[in-house]
Amino acid sequence: MKKDFDYIIAGSGLAGLSLLYHLLRDDHLKNKNILIIDPAKKKDNDRTWCFWEKEQGPFEHLVRHQWKTLQFYSHDVSREFELKHYRYKMIQSGDFYAHLLELAEQFDNVVFSNEKILEINDNGQTAEVKTETGVFTSEYVFNSTGLFHPKMDETNTLLQHFMGWYIKTPAPVFDSNVGTLMDFRLNQQYGATFMYVLPTSPNDALVEYTLFSEKTLKEEEYIRELKKYIQDELKIDDYEITHSEFGVIPMTMARFKRYLGPGNRIINIGTAGGFTKPSSGYTFQFVQKHLLQVAERLKNGQSPVIKPSLRERMFYWYDMTLLEVLLSGKLTGEQIFSGLFGKVDPERILAFLTNESTFWEEFKIRNSVPVIPFMMAGMKQFVAPRK
Question: Are residues 15 and 103 in the same domain?
Answer without folding.
Answer: yes
